[in-house]
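Hi C.,

You asked whether I'd gotten around to modeling the 246-residue construct. I have! Everything is below, sequence then structure, no commentary in between.
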Amino acid sequence: MAQNAIEMIGVDKWFGDFQVLKGINLNVKPGDRVVICGPSGSGKSTVVRCINRLEAHQKGVIKIGGVVQDGSTDALDAIRSEVGMVFQQFNLFPHLSVMENLVLGPMKARGLSRKDAEERAMEYLERVRIPEQAHKRPSQLSGGQQQRVAIARSLCMEPKVMLFDEPTSALDPEMIAEVLEVIVELAEEGMTMVVVTHEMGFARKVADQMVFMDAGEIVETGTADDFFSAPKSERTQAFLQQILQH
């Protein structure tokens, strides 16, 4: 049987006295496309931040490619080699060109030569359809272009799993489509991904598995078809009614 790309078993997380995650169980197999949705403050972003160890969980087990995430060097190496992350904010180095932003990781963490790193960077800039922006600074690009650079930067590390934390929430409406289009293409090529998003049209199109969270818990999971056409929980129904009316 194929090993899970990501496994979360009974994961709890507190911020001080506030329990932000309660008994999270989630399995992501290689090639799965999981979309996590739910109201603001439901713990969605914390789930992906725990997966890549930006936040440490207090209880339960998280495994990445079978490696238990316990904060050890080996575990952190497994995250860095397996998992790419794209945030709401683009987190690009403003003083570096797009190309410099892209070659930094592969040269430092993967030991690529500059020539190989630049070739790889151009390949992924073409994938996200902005090769002509390679020598500009991030501030010279639109928000949608900056987010596509951020996606290309993650892809340059050739991760096995991509995490997206509300990748379009900081963008103007006309830029949302161009970023989602890139993510849809990655999904169609079989990239394993976990996406936190409010974009339900996109979710319906790409998700194998929908996960609905509320108040730190997973309330419901199911295929996109089942989730949108016949949600079981009243909380899911109320959420979908509200979000699909807008």
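If it helps when you're writing up: The longest strand covers residues 18-28.

Thanks,
B.
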